[in-house]
Design brief:
The structure is a single chain. The chain is mostly helical. It is rod-shaped. Helix 1 packs across helix 2. It comes from Callorhinchus milii (Ghost shark). This is Coiled-coil domain-containing protein. Keywords: Coiled coil.
């Protein structure tokens, strides 16, 4: 084999070569770290975006639930108010009906008392022998009561 002659005067020293490799390694490491940082930042942004989208979905669901509950509560409240109103009307009608019935009975009682008084007057006159002097209303009561016996 033939030996090749190398001019050693032009070759860089070992320290210079090591320094060059160290610079290249540092540059490669810096570039690699920078790419990792960019990827982590990008991944973090993607994760944050996903969380925001998920939070928006959850917030929308919660808002829909709250709106449904509010509508349901409103309907229940309106229904209670209508029931209360109907109950109040029924109570008012019952009070009015009882008052009307009480007034009717009072009038009947007055009429019965008047007729009884006239009948008593008629009996008293009959006992005294004054049957011919009966007022017309007393004769009517007397005939009604006499017919009912």
């Amino acid at each position: 084999m033939a030996e090749i002659a190398i001019d050693q005067s032009r070759l860089p020293r070992v320290q210079e070569v090591c320094r060059g490799f160290a610079l290249l390694e540092d540059g490669a490491l810096a570039h690699s770290l920078q790419e990792q940082e960019i990827e982590q930042h990008y991944a973090s942004n993607v994760q944050k975006s996903q969380l925001v989208r998920q939070d928006v979905r959850v917030a929308k669901i919660l808002q829909d639930q709250e709106e449904r509950q509010a509508r349901s509560h409103s309907r229940e409240e309106q229904s209670r108010e209508e029931q209360d109103s109907q109950y109040a009307r029924a109570v008012q009608e019952e009070i009015h009906s009882r008052a009307t019935e009480r007034h009717r009975r009072e009038e009947e009682d007055k009429e019965i008392a008047r007729r009884l008084q006239e009948e008593e007057e008629l009996r008293r006159r009959e006992e005294e022998g004054q049957e011919d002097a009966l007022p017309p209303a007393a004769e009517e009561v007397h005939s009604e009561l006499g017919a009912g016996r």
